[in-house]
Amino acid sequence: xxxxxxxxxxxxxxxxxxxxxxxxxxxxxxxxxxxxxxxxxxxxxxxxxxxxxxxxxxxxxxxxxxxxxxxxxxxxxxxxxxxxxxxxxxxxxxxxxxxxxxxxxxxxxxxxxxxxxxxxxxxxxxxxxxxxxxxxxxxxxxxxxxxxxxxxxxxxxxxxxxxxxxxxxxxxxxxxxxxxxxxxxxxxxxxxxxxxxxxxxxxxxxxxxxxxxxxxxxxxxxxxxxxxxxxxxxxxxxxxxxxxxxxxxxxxxxxxxxxxxxxxxxxxxxxxxxxxxxxxxxxxxxxxxxxxxxxxxxx
Length: 299
Ligand SMILES: [Zn+2]
What we know:
The chain is an alpha+beta fold and about 300 residues long. The chain has 2 domains: about 5-135, N-terminal domain of MutM-like DNA repair proteins (Alpha-Beta Barrel); about 145-265, Helicase, Ruva Protein, domain 3 (Orthogonal Bundle). Helices cover about 30% and strands about 20% of the residues. The protein contains 9 helices and 10 strands. It has helices spanning about 5-15, 35-40, 130-135, 145-155, 160-165, 175-185, 200-220, 280-285, 290-295; strands spanning about 20-25, 45-50, 55-60, 65-70, 75-80, 100-105, 110-115, 115-125, 250-255, 260-265. The strands form 3 sheets. It has a 4-stranded antiparallel beta sheet, with no helix packed on it. Strand 2 (about 45-50) and strand 3 form a beta hairpin. Helix 1 crosses helix 7, helix 4 (about 145-155) packs across helix 7 (about 200-220) and helix 6 packs across helix 7. The longest helix has 22 residues, at about 200-220. It is elongated. The protein starts with a helix and ends with a helix. Residues about 85-95 and about 280-299 have low confidence and may be disordered. Zinc ion binds next to loops.
């Protein structure tokens, strides 16, 4: 799950269970070190559920918070008799997945989490100071983040390329690999484009694009129709034809320590690389052969 999906989940959960009491918490005994702390939240109210990037944060009434981060796909199941749940599509866990955590609310049904998240149990006042959260940049949905501030953060972070800059949570949090690939495709940027080569206008367009796509992802995760790109246009589509030009989509690592990037080699033309010793590109280097043969002195 990426930032938009986690934010949608937080909003859906908040609508259903904030200010409700947790009647019962079931945790598999062999899966959680924090078994005892988790169970201490039984009988307490949930004050708030919110997201920060890909973190889902629960605040309980006794000053304890849970912070969950998806390592792989999360599966959530939410069964509620609450009248508000009519607006929510049910979330059904994949068959055979072992649940990690099951909450039973007072007269409000159950909530089950399956998957492999990082799961922290912290004092609410200490959440922002935890090493995993204190370095996070502004959330991609943070409307207070201005374009000039974002551009300054991107340039200051000295990322190797725009692909790594988008994924760097200390610049902005909530952008996962799929959102990154789709943003670069929509903005016509090759994943390896050096940050230093981007103009202020290109960076502005990049931020606008990532915000539009994040918003679309959020609305889809909320079960609301959203016309913008309802399927991945490049992500995980290696070899399939590009929607725009028909060229086969390629996949590559963006930089030595980069994540996989899916992109269209035509719509996202690669940046021009500086040539060593002023060598000519191959197409031009081939040309002088004829010239050279003409220059051979007659024997
Ligand atoms: Zn294309």
